[in-house]
Each structure stands twice: as structure tokens, then as C-alpha cells.
Amino acid sequence: MSRPTVRPWVRDSAFVVPRPSRGLSVCLVVLALLALLTGLIAAAPALASTAASPAPPLQATPAGVASPAGSGSFTPAATPEPQPSSTFPPGSGARVYAENCAGCHGAKGEGYVGPSLAPAGFASLVAPMVEQGGINMPPFAGVLGAQDVDAVSEYVAQELADPEARTAEVSPGGDLFRLYCAGCHSATGSGGAMAAGRNAPNIRQYPAAQALAAMILGRGNMPAFAGNTFDVRQQTAVALYVQVLAPDPPSPGGLGLGYLGPVTEGAVGAVALLLLILIGVWLAWRSRGATP
Amino acid sequence: MSRDRRQDHDLKRGLGNAFGVRRSPIRPAARWLDTNLGGSGLLRAELRHIFPDSWAFFLGEIAMFCFIILVATGIFLALFFQASEAPVVYDGSYAPLAGAEISIAYDSVLELSLDVPAGLLMRQVHHWAALVFVGALIIHLLRMLLTAAYRRPRRINYLIGVSLVLLVGMNGLMGYSLPDDLLSGTGLRIAFSITESIPFIGPALATLLFGGEFPSGGLIARIYPVHIFLLPAAIAGLLGAHLGLLWLQRHTQFPGPGRSDRVIVGTPMVPAYALRTTGYLLMVAGVCTAFAAFAQINPVWLYGPYRAWDATTAAQPDWYMGWLEGAVRMMPGWDIQIGGLLIPAIFWPAVVLPGLIFTPLFLVPWIDWVATRDGAFHNVLMLPGQHPVRSALTAGFIAFLTVLLVAGGNDVFAFVYGWSQPAFLTVLQYLFFLLPPAVAVVTYALLRVRARRWATTVR
């Protein structure tokens, strides 16, 4: 009758130089390499996108956003006082403003019948408003030429808008962005895949003016938000928040990894684990034969 | 003088030389302790406890070290985190959220990340270590399956190990849910729906666990003690049992010259193994810290506070929950209505499927026993090539999990590589059924060839 020993493992130990087991090593090294490959493939776009999208210049486009603020800075340089209208040369933004806008919006854009222009920080957002009009504001498309519209928009954005009011709009802009934009473009603006097999693009790769134009006019599957969803103040707020994200969101924590969320983080985590396993392989290799 | 005694003598002399003294004051102190307490015999035996050498045995160590790092950094984070969903107006240093009404929990995480010195580093070490932790656990588990380490006498320890995987994954989910940012809330919303989908008891259970309709406003305060106390205590307890059993039963070893189920070959704990493993702990801590220093993880300030009406693309859980997310994404919207009973489609991938994965996983030692009729004690592992069926099944399981994991990030993959997301999802749905058996069959065929060669050359 054979009864199993209570403790069949033996405390005595023979000291023999261990030999690495090749079968499992090969299997797991192949697994590890596959994991590394997967990690690299998943991480590649993040690295590539960082390399391929240099910071687009904010003012370098024809309809450029006329904000002197660079990305990440929310307090542009102080604006000079507007000049009295009698000294304005014909065709200047100040003159167009004084002749057409000041009656409702006040001489310095402080608001009277119409709303205050303090938060209107983007010429490219003011121009469509001037052309198409607002709730009680008539369209000026037939009254002003294209040059006058551009001039007055520049003037409003540069001279009348108040940087402090603009700063206060960033946070509500973020709320609007997460409510209306993040569902397609992601909270970080990186873009995302849509149900119809189309992609919402990475808004950070475009010059700011182009991104704003898309928000106002709509583009592809994206509806026009101007007038329907956002009033001019909300458009400005969203535009200001987009400036926070573009070209690179605030990332005090280091590399942004493409701002694509937990998927790329998981891939990078796999690389960390692989590194640790390789360190383990090295340790085991170093201590081969160390056994007395 | 026997060989063992001579080595002990050398060791003592070596230590004495290292400290620069001929007569160490430790010796009389130790003698006093021994004559008053006893136990030197036990210590002498246990300090020379043998650990077999292989890099594959370090996987569990990586996990254990990550747990230590997580507890250490977690204590730091707990000094600053406040588990409350009461509203507060943000007035910290991050200008783009200035004046926003947010929860105290989110506010405290922002302060911890952006205003507390080293706070962000600690948070990032905590998060990277968590990602590595679960990864190490899962590869450790796969190593068990590939080498049949779960056989008698280690069945109970295997059960403890699988339970640890479950508990650690759950605690990761809890930690992900705490900051009350947009991703946290989105994840909790899904968890609520999953709980609610269980027939009959679902709605009542969800109300009980979540404190009412979602969002109940008191959820963070419920999750917090679970994350920092209940689950860590359970994990620490099971980890202690896991290591205790490992100590008593000794570690398994790979087959090799001089090794058998009765003779274990390896490195003694003192001094070689203890020094090596301490160094490894420091390296794990170093790698986690280096990643935290250079790579940003979970930038909650960009995701914004959770509001039930907000949504974002690229909303994924941390990777170790990706398989569950993937299963939910692949499931067609087949709600079943039987009389007054509605079984939502999410019930099958999110409740039934995990049960179908973990039940057999827990039963593996007994399934193996039924299949092989091998109930003997084993201290020598099998090589993956020695048992093609077992290895093929494990490979199929890995393929199965991989498909689920990729499906969990299907929108990000489709976006990054410019694929059509619905088409990609359809491909994954086919792969869900086709890839695991294909991988299993190919692995089996390859290993059969190898096993034949192995049989002729080694034995």
C-alpha cells in the first residue's frame, strides 16, 4: 500500500550550475518581441504625430486669428486706447467701426443697444458676424466691402476686445468644447473615428483660423455651429479654448503620447513591462553559475 | 568540516571583513539572543532557503514590487485626495478651468497634480506601476498555464493567484474611477449599466452599490475606502498567503541535470538571492519612476470634470479592462424581451463572458487532472513543448484575449491607421471566433513537430 508522503519536496539541496531552459525562453522571448512590436506599432503614430505636426503659426494665415497671444498664454499684450474717429484715415477699421458699429456697440465696444465686444478676440469670428448679422443686428454684407469687413473685424479683435474678458471666457469655452466638440474630436482635440467610417480630424494639426472656419461654417459631416448653436460670445469662448489645446495641450507630465488616452498609455506600459522582463533576463543571465 | 559549514564560515568571515572588523559585535549579540530566544537552527535552515533560477520566475516578483510601489505612492496620494462630489469653484493654478464648478474630488486631484510639489510625479508613478502590475500578473499567470505549475501541490496557491489577478484588476478600475474626470465618470456609467443589466436583481443591485440612480453624487466616497483599504487589504492578505505557501512548498524549477521532484537546485536566499531581488525591486521602482518622469499618463486636466452630458472619443479604460470594453463593443445590440423581462445586450459580454473566462481559469488544475489523470506531486515544471495540447490551448486563450483587447481600442486603431471603424469592428467580430482556434491549431502542429524531436534528442 503506497501512501503519498506528506512533504515530498526535500529540504536538501544539491548545488549544480543551473542551465537556462531553452524551450520556455524561446517561447517567452518570442512573446516578448511580439509585445514589443505591438507596443511600437501602437506607439508609432503617437511619436509620428508629434514629429509630423510642428506648431502651426497662429498669425500666418490670411484670415488668421489676430490674437497676439501664443498658445498657452491667456493674457495678450495690453491694447492701446482707440483713437478719436476724426483722425482716422478713410477705410481704416476704426473709421468703419465708428461709422457703422459704434451706434449700437458703443464708441469703445463697451456695449449699448448691442452687446459688449470685450470677449470678441478673433477677427475670423467677427467677420462672419458682420457679414451675416446677429439676432437684432442687420447683415452688413451689402453695406461694407470685403476689405472694410476685414478691417473692422481686425479692429474689433485687436483694439476693442478686452484680454481680461477673454481670459474669463476660456473656462466656459472648455465646457462648450467638451459638450459639443469632444464627442467627435476628443477632449484633447486629437480627433476620433466616427460611426460612418469617417474620421473627425485632429484639430490641433490645422492653423487656428482653419479650425475656427470649420466651426463657423461646418465641414463634411460637421454642422455649422455659428448662429445655430453658438452665439458670437460662445464661438469666441470655444476658439479661445481651442487655443489652449493647439498646437500642444498643456502637458506638465512629460510626453503627451499623442493625447490618445489609455490605448497608447497601455502600449507604453507594455514597453515598460518588457524592459523589466529584459532586466530580469539579464539578472538571471548574470547570476548563472553564481550558485556555489 | 562539511561543505555547508565551510560556506557559512566563509560567509561570516566575508561579512566581518566587509565591515572592517575582525571581531564583530554582532556575534555576541546574536549569541545572547539565541541563548535567550533560540531559533538559530531554524534561521540557519531558512536563510539558506533555495530559490530556483530563471528569469521566468521574476514575473511574480515584478508584480509584488509594483504592489509595494503602489502602496508607497498611494499613501502619498491619500494625503491630498478628498473623496467628495460636493461642488466647489476651481481657483487653482490651471487657468483654462478657472472658475469652473467642479467636484471636490476632481479639484483635489488637480491640486495634487498641478500645485503640490512632486504630486504629479507620484500620481504618474502610481498609474504606470498599476499598468505594469497587472501586466506582470497576467504574464505570470500565462507562465503558470504554459508550464503546468498549477499541479499538485500548488492548486490552492494557483487559486490564490487567479483571485489576485481579479482583485488587482478590480482595484485598478476603482482607482481609475476616483479622480471624477470625464473618463472616470464614463467608466462608472458603463459599470452602472452592466450592473443594471443582470436579470431580476440588476436594478436593485445597482441602486445598492451605486447609492441610487447614476450619478448618485455619493459614489466617489463609496469607492475610495474600497480602493485604499478593502481591496488592498485583501490583496495584501492573499499575497502573504501566496508567498507563505510558496515558501513552504518551495518554488518549482525547470527540468535540468540534478533536478527532480525531490531535489531542488537554485540560489540560497542569503546572501545571493536576497541581494539580487532587492536590486530588482530598485530597478522596478526606477523604471516606473523613469516612465513617470518622461511620459504623461491620464492628464485629467485635459479631460475636464465629469458631467453626465459630456462625452469624448478615445474614452477607454486602462488596458487591463480593455478586454471587457472590447467584448461590449463587439456585441451586436441584441436586447431580448421575454414577457416583462428585458435582458439588455450588454449582459452577455459584460457579465456572462467574464464568468465564462474566469470559471474555467479557476478550474484549470482540476480540468488538467481530469484530462491527464496526473494527480501526483510535481516540483519540476513541464516545458511548453512537452505538452502540445496544454500549450496550444493557452496560445488560443492568449489570442482570444488579444482580439478582445484590440476591440477595446478599435476606434483609436481605426483613427490612427485610417481604417473604417465599422469595417474594422466587423473584422474583429470574425476574428473573435476564428483566430483563437486557428492559433491553437497552428501552435499544436508546431509543438508536435518539436515534441517529436525533443523526445528523440533529450530522452
Offer a concise description of the structure.
The complex is a heterodimer of chains A (292) and B (459). By secondary structure, chain A is mainly alpha-helical.
Overview of this structure, please?
The complex is a heterodimer of chains A (292) and B (459). Chain A contains nine helices and two strands; from the N terminus they run ααααααββααα. Chain A has a domain of 84 residues: Cytochrome c-like domain (Cytochrome Bc1 Complex, Chain D, domain 2). The N terminus of chain A is likely disordered. Chain A has 292 residues and is mostly helical. In chain A, α1 packs across α9 and α6 packs across α8. Chain B is mostly helical. Chain B folds into two domains: 48 residues, no CATH class; 330 residues, Cytochrome Bc1 Complex, Chain C (Up-down Bundle), CATH 1.20.810.10. Chain B has a two-stranded antiparallel sheet. Chain B has a two-stranded antiparallel sheet with strand order 2-3. In chain B, strands 5-6 form a two-stranded antiparallel ribbon. In chain B, a hairpin with a 2-residue loop joins β5 and β6. In chain B, α6 runs antiparallel to α7 and α15 packs antiparallel against α17. The longest helix of chain B is centred in the C-terminal third of the chain and has 37 residues. Chain B is globular, with a radius of gyration of 26 Å. The model of chain B has no long low-confidence stretch (mean pLDDT 92). Classes of the chains: A mainly alpha (292), B mainly alpha (459). Chains A and B meet through α1, α6, β1, β2 and α8 of A and α4, α6, β4, α11 and α12 of B.
